[in-house]
Design brief:
single chain, 405 residues, alpha+beta, Beta-lactamase, 6-stranded antiparallel beta sheet, 3-stranded antiparallel beta sheet, 35% helix
Length: 405
Amino acid sequence: MKKLSLLLQLLLVSLFIGAQPLQRVSPASVGLDASRLANADAAILKAIQHKDIPGAVLAVVRHGKMAWLKAYGNKEIYPKQLPMTTNTVFDMASCSKSMSTAISAMILIERGQLRLLDRVNHYIPGFQDWKDAKGETIPIRIVDIMTHSSGLPPYAPVDSLKRKYGSPNRDGVIDYISHCKRDFKPETDFQYSCLNYITLQRIIETISGQNLRDFAKKNIFDVLGMTHTDYNPNSKLCELCAPTEKQPDGSVLQGVVHDPLARIMNGGISGNAGVFSSADDIAVLVAALQNGGEWNGHRILSPLGVKAMRTVPRCVASLGRTLGWDIFSPYASNNGDLLGPNTYGHTGYTGTSIVIDPDNDVAVILLTNRVHPNDAGDCIQLRSLVANAVAASIIPDMGKSKARK
């Protein structure tokens, strides 16, 4: 009995340690100029004033520490007004691809259960490869769907799928993706596609025997103590969620994924969208990636796995997409103009953005719900302005040695 009690205590201590947020420090202690960082504040406040966004949370991570964490404006303006807080939980939209689906796939690669060169139809029977006019077949592989070079269409007709298959119907979505028209020969072009990551979801689930939510929770979120990160958040977490778009009946989506494919056809657990998270939780994930896949004694990836995820594969070297992230595709403007050439990141339709610069060991997490209440907001320029302000705040050769002690 005493041994059982001791084991339970050790487990609780372990969970507590894993759930700790990053240490909050002054910008100067990690080599950032606070007066220059304040330029990011000004850009965000201007966007709020212009009604581009209702509010935002900005987190800046350097050397594994939280150097800047602020909330701005409101998280809700309809049907009532509520202020934004730093613990607000956001619909991460397509950032889910990077935070969950891609990392889950890399975990399977590290375990020897998946290869980048594996054909998709090895895991999804009936999934059609590319065929040219002469009938020549070119296989679509894992690396193609992870880098958006597969040729799959950008999205799917949700209303048509709902009529044909009913909803939610994840098998129906996969059936559509398996047989829909391919737009180009794999690895010859880039086309950002949510269908790529729904396909990757099915492969992860087939190999692991778990749905994506359970796999990501067990192998990523719980490992790092990301207690405010999940698909289909529970009622307690929903209370912290920033609402998104107003619906025809006058309600707003809150704690329910905004993306139609994810919400209507995949029941909220989808490879392209569905993760809800907070700035503190994302900061821990970023710190782990910057630390070779491990944080606070808890490892999700190997150093080589992390390196692979932030490297553009040679087969698509001109396209700018890595295995789940973006370096220099047309979608990478959130990286700004001043950060290092190896900077990688991702954005979400709802107004979320993650930017990580491994050379300068700095990350910018900008979270907005720009689709609230009428999907009329815009934060594309704002992301770049904020990234530039953070980059310009870096003071060379200061803070690094102290921060790592």
